[in-house]
Design a protein that fits this description.
about 65% helix, 9 strands, mainly alpha, about 725 residues
Length: about 725
Amino acid sequence: MNKQSGIHYLREHREAGSSKPVPMEVTRIRDTVVAGLGDLLQGAFDAVDDSLFELANNARSNNEQNRYFEAMREIRIKRKGVERHFQNAVAQFFANPPHTGHIQDESLSKQATADTLSLVGNEDLEEQVALNAMITKAKAHFQGPLLQLQTRFGQVYPEATEDSPVNPMAPEHLCSAFTEAIQALEIQIRERLILLKQFDRYVVSNLGMLLDEANRILIQAGIIPNFRYHGKAGKQQATQKGKAPQQASDEPATATTASPEDAHESALFEQIRQMLALQRTNAGMPPRTSDPSLRVVGDAELADLLNSLPVTDAVPTGDNLSDGEPITVDLRQVVQQLLARADTGDGRKPALNEFDEDLINLVSMLFEFILDDYNLSAPVQVLISRLQIPILKVVMRDKTFFSQATHPARRLLNSLARAGIGWSSSDEKAKDKLYNQIHNIVQRILNEFNGDVSLFDTLNHEFEQFLEKENRKASLVEQRTRESERGRIKSQKAQETVDTLLKEKLARYRLPDPIYDILTNGWSRFMFLAYLRDDVEHRWHEAVRTVDDLIWCLHPHQEDEERDQWVRVVPSLLKTLRAGLEEVSYNSSRLDEMMGHLKHELAEAFRTNAAIEARQDSPAETDEEPEATHQTAVERQQELEDAAISEYVTQIDGIEIGNWVEFRLVNGASFRCKLSAIIEEADCFVFVNRMGLKVIEKNRIELAHEMRRGRLTLLEQGALIDRALDAVVGSLRSKTA
């Protein structure tokens, strides 16, 4: 690369800078970012390996195929060194942060003129264009988090100024550090561009979670905790907020009909009420109606009191309702404060009847469960936590919330939780349609709910229509992902089967070079396609038999019957070989030459009756017994390992297609994904994100190890309110036991 790429600038900047003490919060960010980038980079290199393998399989010539395999070998050998170089460079950015924008601006300015461009090689220019496109896209995609982080780092680093800010995590620094790290790879421009493409896809595109984590650490340290950015997205959100559609006041509420599910919920609710009543009896509390010093507040009065309570008094709101931690509201205290306002001055203290008090307690326990439910994604959990006052108003006005599973507010909460189960904190909230939809629903409830429960029915209907469209798109993408993965796995298995079979057959004899070449470099391709198409064309066994026939024809045949059979077999064998090689587009200029060599070798074998030489290497026989001993030790170790994870393998086998899980990275970050396919022939579990795109694949044993280490969690997908009520019943039973 030329100096125009900014690589030399980085190297000179780091070498010139002296190591300075790094603040504690920056050290935390550095360790998290370096570990996180290391995990993401591993995924990028794995994808590069897969891409090069696929290109090699589809290569049109031996030279092209060898080129890709050589690139694979080069990258595999030097991969660890590149990863280490990249992580060290990133860590150094936090000790001596380069000024943001200098690298890219310097490189772009130097490329601005025709004279400068004429000095840059075509390959370097092509690589630089890809690098600049990657940086530009990342800066646009993560504009908000990058601006916040740059502003906060300006408070941390004394050398930062308004005209010359610093940000160790700026995309231009990370991309240039990676480009510098891969200079050690002796690969051509096409393979280098593949490497940059996968780095963009797996590392740069996932910077969001690391940027969010860095901002969170600085916020915890008290560095600009209340940052507000009013960019284009913010203005759009404000516009949407101002133009919220008004609900028609004359729209009737949807009637709910009783169902077996509702009957079950009603029985469950009555069971909860009985246990709450038992708690009051055990506590020696007399009935409210028998106490002359209390004035029991009626339903209508209580509803009016709740309607007079502004939501923002108990639940602070802002532009982004999912900022911060879930909000805890003491509903009992809120109601007590409202009752204090209802004092009529007649000497009697306002109080609730037992039924209303049970409902308030139940709403409190419900949200205690919601705020502690790990299955909810963090942003959705924060959003739902803001609905405590509205749900309390719903329950006080319509007491069927707990006894009817089809209650509009209950259905909406279940839908929000179910839709948001796959939402990860690393996702870009500002550009995510699902997040915006959930955010707007919560915002509308907070702004518009006035006691009319039909609002929840309207919102639920709109949300289901939105989900139907989104799920249709995701299903199509997921279907393509499954088909692609099945095809890739089948191709990989086909190649492994062909390589193993030929290796086993050819290892027995020292074949003439032309025969060996035509089988390994030509006929192997026909066998590969025959294996893939065997379900339709049934030519795999024919392809294998052709190899056996060729080897048989090279053996000595002295008996007249065998020699007669040889004469019958060879013409059809040559015809089959030529047709197969032509079908796979074997090099036409070499085909006639290779077939001529093949005919010559067959004729020589028949004429001279010479045997092909069998391979009998004495070292292999000598090493056979020690190898068996070593294999036994490995098997013994494997048995111990299998026993340790056996219970986890059983849990993995219990995961069904469509179930959601959460993976945690070593740096503490996490992502959620759904099991999309189980490819049994390869023992491969394929997971996709909400959009249907593949995010990870692992086999059964790898998943069991992840679960054993606590880095894989199965997420419960039942209805949120149903799970909450079950948890409440369990809690009450333990208290009344």
